[in-house]
Structures are given as structure tokens and as C-alpha cells.
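Deviations from the work plan: none for this task. Representative record:
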Amino acid sequence: MNVSFFFEVLLGGLLAGVMYSLVAIGFVLIYKASGVFNFAQGAMVFLAALTFVSLTERGVPFVVALVITLAVMIVLGIAIEKVVLRPLVNQPPITLFMATIGLTFVLEGLSQLVWGSQPHGLEIGIKDEPIGWLLDNAGMSVSQFDLSAAGIAGVMVAALALFFQYTRIGRALRAVADDHQAALAVGIPLKHIWAIVWTVAGFVALVAGLMWGSRNGVQYALTFIALKALPVLILGGFESIPGAIIGGLIVGASEKLAEVYLPQLLNAPLTNMLGTAVNLQGIESWFAYVIALLFLLVRPQGLFGEKIIDRV
Amino acid sequence: MLYREAGQFKSTYAEDQQIFPIRQDRIAIAALLLFAFVIVPLVANQYWFAAILTPLLIFALAALGLNILTGYAGQLSLGTAAFMAVGAFMAYNFELRIPGMPILVSFALGGLCAAAVGIVFGLPSLRIKGFYLAVATLACQFFVLWAMQRFGWFSNNSTSGVITAGKIEILGYEFASAGSKYLLTLGVVAVMALAAKNLMRSQTGRSFMAVRDMDVAAGVIGIPIMKTKLLAFAISSFYCGVAGALYAFCYLGTVEPEAFNLDLSFRILFMIIIGGVGSILGSFLGAAFITLLPIFLSVLFGGVSRLLDIEISHAVQSNFELIVFGGLIIFFLIVEPHGFARLWQIAKEKLRLWPFPH
């Protein structure tokens, strides 16, 4: 086994994992503050990326397009709070979850109705090329783009952490996350907080949309990355932002390693054993889920999730 | 006044325990079965059988399976389509590899294979709950589809994993026409729905509900949680598996693994949410709604575009359908979170008093 190739795969996986974390953070934010498992996060990523790319293609400057898209996400956040969440207060979590699946359909249909459904390329000025210095000295090809994505994710997490820790709104958010009723009792306006959380999640979706869009192109398939973020989510725990990051790293790395090494190692023995042609390619479509599943058997609440206490 | 139990005395235990204790219910069910078995075959045409009624019944069966798991036993699952895929592909293989295999036995064996898969993927439910479990069942969804595509044995080494169901023959009679396939589906669905209705008021069903409402408490009063949860997974998957086999044999004929993707799982989940979680009737109502809605919408669009004399492109139409579909789901969840089954219950309560106010 080639060691530098191994590290290259590992590093590539870790960086891809950061991209998953970007999406997973959006889930965590909303789950923390409102207990809603927001399946529409993927659609929000798609909507943000599509809006942004369509604006820039129509000649709107980068910064203006960014501001407009952010405004769209803010309006969306407020609208979701008003139209979907508020009438469903006090419903069981599964009902809210179903509502967000309905929301997914609405957002997907809406964004494609407005902007058309053809795929777009997105250029945000970072090239998806190997870093020359590493390639020359260590023989490893590490994409410049992936590294920047990791940097952006790091900055965003730091910004979110500061926002949560030091601002008035951040403190209110943490209070709501801890206990809805207690937060209401001390006078924190729940509906404003929810609108803010959905807006912040919209902002996260915008960042994730830009990164994923410039990597894979802005197209309908972008909505599926939400599914990629789910194992990250259960691995890290629904309530934890650090969990989303660590979970993303674990999922990214193990998925990449499995994708590269498992077919090589296991195809031949399995074919011999089962007596029929076995091809383990495409294993990455479920490998992350199985890892997360095995992990959950040991820690049912994920890495950093809140401990589940059963009371009778 | 029309619908009430007053004056219907029960003098034996058998009468007390019968499945529909109220006479009006019995008459309604008999009328419904008569309608479905006799009148519909006489009046419906090819299109109705093949494109609407058969899939409706099959989805109702799958929804029923999911409802047993999610509605009665309280375990949220997003892997329904995977269980259907197992049923479909295994039934196909039993038919293919064992000569002279009776088709109904193949369906049942396909269902049993799905049940086995269900037990394996139900194991995590012993440790994890709620959304964690829902995401875990996604593992089943992706793994099963992947296996169907990658292991040539399942699809008899066809290139893209497509299987083509053979002809359906029972006791020398070949079910070739759409109408006969509808009747076969209806027969299977009716029997299994009745079985489910009975099962859910037996000890098994009650222990499901106890586990759903609070599993720790259920364990304290002596219900074996592990056995109950796994049994719920097994029975639910069996229903889904048979539904999948019917889907392949009676509805589509030619199936690829991708037909059983996550979208299908979600659609079936929608059916039970819209129809009513924890209700047999709700599974049917939900399946009817979700199956008929897209057809209704596309007819509506055709009408609108003719009326206004404008060309609505296919992309616009399908996107608009998505929006309306999603919007309606949200609307229904807000207006009646307990689904159509609850509406029906309210209607029955009203009927007991009608035409008097009290």
C-alpha cells in the first residue's frame, strides 16, 4: 500500500467531510432551536445556489447577488415561520418533519419554476486544482478548492460560535434551545427567535450552496446532498455543532477510504466466496449510513448529542 | 340516527368480539367489498384498472404495512420502498428458479424475505429512537437498492438490474388482462387488510400500541420490548414485501431497482400521515389521495391550458405540480394533523346524532 496515496485519500475524504458538515450545520441549528428536523435544508441549499447563480448569469455583480440571495433567504425564513411552523406549534415532531418534506417539494418546484431547471456552472474564483507545493514536495494531490472550503467552514463555525456566545440574540437562541417554555416565561419572543434561526440556517444553506454548487454545478442533484449530511448528523448528534464538524470528518474520511480501498480488497475474495460476480463499486451510497448505524449502537445519541433519559 | 349502536344487543361473547360490532359498519363493509369486487369490474375500463385502481390498492397495502410499524408500533421508518424491493425481487427469483412455483406462494415467500430483512434492519430500533432511527432506516433503503443493482443474482444478471415479471397463473387461469390483475390485487389486499384489522385488536396489536405510547412502561408491565419491536418490523415488512411483489407482477410488469427509491418511501409515508397514523382505513384513504392527486392535477392543467389557450410546457407543469403537492401536504397537516381517518371519525360522531343537534 502506498503511504502517500493513503494520506492523499484520507485528506481528500476529510476535506469532503467538511463540505458535508456545511450542510449538516444547517440541520443542527434548526433542530437545536425548534426541535424540528428540517428535511428542507437540502432544498434550501439548492434554492440559494440557484438564485445566486441565476442572478450572476444575468449580469448582477457578485456582492449584490450575494446580498439579494441573502435577502431571499431571510424572507423565506420569516415566511416559513409564519406559514408553516406557527400553525403547527405543539404538534408531534413527526408532523413537523412531514411538513418540512412538503416544504422540500414546494421549494424545489418554486426555485425551478422561477429560474428554470437546466444545470448551471458556478465560478466563485477558487480553482479546483491540486496545490502545486504539496504535489511537488510530498507527491500528494490536494485540491485548493477543498482546502478553501474547509477554511470557509472553519470561519463560519467560529462566527456562529461567537454569535451564539456573545450576542443578545445568540443567548436567546441558546435559551430557546434549552427549554422552550422557560424561554417564553422569561420573555423571549419565540416566534422572532424561530424566524432568526431559519434565517441563519438560510445563510448556512447559501454558503453550502455556493461551495457545493461551484464544485458539482448547480443542478437538481444538489438537493440530494441533504441525504449525505444525514449520517453526519446522527453520528455527531442532532444538537451539536462541533458534532456536525467531527461527524463530517469521520464520515468523509471513512467514506473515501471505503470507496477507494474496499472494492480493491474485497471484490475478488467475495466473488470466490459467493460464486457470483461481486462488484462493490458505488459502496459510498450507503457506507456512511452503516458507519453511523454501527456507531449509534454504541452511543444512541450520537457523539455529542444530549443524553437520552427515560422517565416513566 | 342512521348510524348508532343503540338497540343492537350482544348476547354471546362471539358477538361481543366480532370485528365490526355495529351493524351499519358490517353493511357498509359488505357493500364496499361488493362494489369493489363486482360493480367496479363491470364498469371500469382498461385505463382505470391499469393506471389508477391497481396501483392505488398496492400503495394502500404498502401504506398499511408502514402504518403497522409507524402508526401502531411507533417506529418511524424511511425504508419502506426497500422492503417492497426485496419482496418484488425475491418473488421474481422464486418464480424464476423454482419451476411450477405457485404465484401466491412466491408472493408470500417474497414477503417473508422482506420480513427477514426488516428484522435485521429493525435491530437498531432496540437501541435508538425517533429521528435517529428514521435516519438509520435510510441505511436499509440505500443498501438494499445498491445490493439489487450490484449483485447480478437478484435480477438474473440482466444488465441494468431490470426484471420482467413472468405471467401470473393460478389453477390454470392466466391473469393477463388489467381487469383480472386488479381482481387478484384486490383479493390479496382485502384478505391482508382484514388480517391486519384483526391483528391490531389482538394481544400483539395491543402490545404494539403499548410500546408506541411508552416503551419503558410497556416493559415494566411485562411486554417483551425486543420481541414486540422486531415483530412489528417483521409484520410491517411482510406487508410491504407483498405489496412490492404485487407492484412488480400486477402493476408494472417490468421493474428496475430504481423504481423503489427514496421518493417512493416518502410517498408511502405521506399516505399514512395524510390518511391517518394508526388507522387501517387511513392507509386506504391516504393511498387514494396521494395516487389520485397527481392525476387530478395533470387533468386540471390540461383543462386550464385548453381553456386559456396557452401552451404550458412540461417542465412548468411538473414544477407546479410539485408546489401544489407540497403545499397541500402542509395545508392538510395544519388543518387536520390526524388525517382523513380522524375526519371520518368526526363524521361518524355527527351521524350518530343526525338530524338532531344533541
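Residues 3-298 of chain A form a domain with the ABC transporter involved in vitamin B12 uptake, BtuC fold (CATH 1.10.3470).
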